Amino acid sequence: DGGITQSPKYLFRKEGQNVTLSCEQNLNHDAMYWYRQDPGQGLRLIYYSQIVNDFQKGDIAEGYSVSREKKESFPLTVTSAQKNPTAFYLCASTQGGVNEKLFFGSGTQLSVL
Amino acid sequence: AQTVTQSQPEMSVQEAETVTLSCTYDTSENNYYLFWYKQPPSRQMILVIRQEAYKQQNATENRFSVNFQKAAKSFSLKISDSQLGDTAMYFCAYPPSYNTDKLIFGTGTRLQVFP
After folding, report:
1. What is the pLDDT of residues A67-108, one digit of tens each?
2. Gap between the Cα atoms of B68 and B49, Å rounded
3. Hey, are the CB atoms on B105 and A88 less than 8 Å from each other?
4. Which of A97, A101, A107 is nearest residue B43 as measured by Cβ atoms?
5. CB of B23 closer than 8 Å to CB of B106
């Protein structure tokens, strides 16, 4: 079945550590997105990519980094510079841009040890 | 700043009844899309319904329909014949400008359907 796979489901970060969240899609979508979800808040955009080897910062990119070396993969690294990383992270993709349906993964819950 | 507001943090409804979730937004665009996404306890977001602002007719998807009031910038979601599986967080969202690559999401409404 086509879809988006995020891993791991749960992730724990130690102080000063970088961690990487995986996002893989087999929908052949060009555009991929990373959102952060905090309790009581909507989703906020971290980074997005419209095409391989190109990506743009979203509204809350500080402390995060991404790469897009393959069409199907868009990993997110939470660096030690992100001082409040505890949140639920959602990856999404779409073929026609944000005016079309977004397909979401099942998310990664990141917590700080 | 362009925003989207969901004024009902929580709502509840009895099974088989109808419930309406409200959403207001702010945009200077004339042509745009509006979305309702559902996040069930599994936490995977699913598109419920999409409305094109230049269309007069309200969008419907089975038991889900919208009441779109463009002048009032209001976009409410009506769920008819509520089912237990409708229990979820519901988020209203829209792109803040026509050529943007991002969606602005509301803070969500938690809907509980009771048997």
Report:
1. 999 999 999 999 999 989 999 999 999 987 778 899 999 999
2. 12
3. no
4. A107
5. yes
